[in-house]
Amino acid sequence: MANSHSQNHHIPTSVIKTSREELDISELQIHHQENKNTQPVPVDKLPKDLHGYAFIVGALFQAENRPQEDGTLLYTGDGMIYRLGFEDGKATLKTRIAKTPCYYADLPTQLYLAEKAIEPKAQFAKDNRIFSYFSGFRDGGQSRYSIILGARNQLNTAFLRTRDHLLVTIDAGRPYVVDPNTLELIEPTGSTNEWKGIFPVMAKVLRNNIFDIYINSAHPVADVRHLDDKLDEFFTTNYSTGYNGKFRKPVNFVLDRLSVLLKLLFTNRVSDREDFGRFTYLVCYQFGNEEAGIKPKMKSWRMVLPDNKPVLVEQSLHQLAITEKYLILSDITFRMEFSQIFSPFFLGFLRLGNFGQNKFYSFGAWLYSVFIRQSKPLPFGNLYIVKREDLDKNTEAAQVTAQKVTIPIEISHFAADYANPDNKITIHIGHSNGWDVTEGITRYDESVPGRPLRKDLEGMMSGTTDLGSLGRYVIDGETGEIKSSKLIHDTESTWSLSVYTHRDLCRDSNETSSQTVKNIYWMSWGFTWELIPQRIYEAYKADGHRVVAIEDLPDHKPATLLRLDTETMEIVDRFHFPDRHFACSPQFIPSSEPCPEGKDESTQGYIVCIVLTDEPTGLDEARDEFWIFHADDFNNKPIYRLSAPATEEPLNLALTLHSTWLRDLHQGRQHSEDERRQKREASIKLDYDHLLEEKCQTIDNLFHKIVYPHFINQTLENQFEEILKSKTEL
Questions:
Q1: How is the beta sheet containing 519-524 ordered, strand by strand?
Q2: Residue 534, Cβ neighbours under 10 Å: how many?
Q3: CA-based nearest residue to 683, from 714, 716, 705, 729
Q4: Cα separation of 302 and 311, whole Å?
Q5: Counting CB atoms within 10 angstroms of each CB, which of 198, 367, 465, 713 has the fewest?
Q6: What is the spatial distance between Cα 170 and Cα 287, in angstroms, rounded to a whole number?
């Protein structure tokens, strides 16, 4: 293993360090950096036109005071919501863990609790050792799962702003409404009776999943311009790829035949082939109106192609986009592989006091070599286009037709213009060539000969093996034909394109009229051999569609914030972050001042992002910051750097993903503390009372004595852990 203190390292160890502490910081420390080439100095005030609240979310990776779980990926963990506020030239920070009901079932059943030990610390686990061993949640690839209780909904990926609500989301779980002020979860969107699990037959026949896996899109969409006097709503999906591993066709052939048999055996439970997965539904969730006595409503359409064959997702419907006339769904490179989940999950069962980690290294290495073989993403991306008028004109229809469009390069994320002149759709895509973000560094990986693989970064996602690119595509929304396309790549800036931001369009806010994305800001995570295991290198080195030949890959390229002019398709501004700085989650914040005549509105504002870095005198302590750039000039205008107050511990933030921005915290109808509690109580009883009817007394006690009351209270983690360790009545 490479020396973790080596000054030759490019990736800070802070990327795999996270603090679970839930913070309320009334004033962050501000440093002002005159331009890219100057040193930061302390100042008292931020620019007066910097306002509102940036919300950023990320997964809490392994905490320092808990054992490292074998096979945990960096984006597997409880969602931590960071709210960065700008008020009167000051910056505030509030953080809260997104605490779903399954969160409150996870901690009591763990074999450890807040200490480096295997011996149970939670009183419930002590009193129910065998039950807790088998029901405890364990990490496996992108999931955290219990063979008795089901899957975790960790809400760690993205946000959605609707007209009146703020939601936090993930691919493998129902979105939840979050209170912008307290950051408490309020309620899920749709009940367990309204969503279809990834394998419905499991819940119907075995009845062992209280927390089922509901796959949807981590990026649902809303259109405030389309609502007028209608109830608030948003669109998402509910789908299942079914079994998508090796020997997919013969396995699914057998499952289809098995479904016929099970229909005969379980006539009241098993209904059709969809019980084994392989279904795709477009979903519209409409919020209710309490004053008018209108309850929320969830409408689903089965998606079919023009020949009436079902739409079957091959990888992941990770993202949706909405335009004036169309909904666009993207099947992109974010595949959940069952073998990738199985191996680390199985090894988790060996984590007993007399089974040391080193004793099972050889067995673990063998298991990984068999089951964690690189399954490359498809070398293209599929888009599905649905006409909004088809949804509006017949709300009672059970299915909707989608036009399929194939983009001949892998898709990372994309944005869409709102306007559809002549029924044309313009989309802006970040292409991730030679990169599978579902792969991470394991303790069993070997380095490419002569290259510095960082095994001390176990769990970090593997790096790219090729240069990415940025594309603009114009598509005929009626036929699906690609009318034009333009692609650019830049050897200094387009490696590992991750997420983007841009100024709000008219669909996002009633306070703007723009219908096109003129400037888009992308975060590139750069290139480094420190994140490329040999198995990844071998899988991609001979790809026929490589942009850069494998022998021409550079030694290193830094993380970069770039601005793309979508009209000229030129990178017009870029900022290369210093070495050992890893930047993520850019968010555009518009200036509160009117746009001067002649100035481009799409660049009038600021870009805020999280920058992960280490203590300069040593790499063992995180010293993370928030950086703020002027959106129209990254290098020659001041940069503001926000850090923890000198009297407190340095910030130790998660490697975050997506973000959003609110002008104020009083969006939509406000709920009192009692109203929020009532909503949580009603939702948890609706979701789980009927699923607990046939469960054993231990499960009943877990839910009614621990999960229900603490979810309703949204008990903070440090308080919850102390309660769990006490011998008093829970």
A1: 497-501, 519-524, 560-565, 570-576
A2: 14
A3: 714
A4: 8
A5: 713
A6: 19
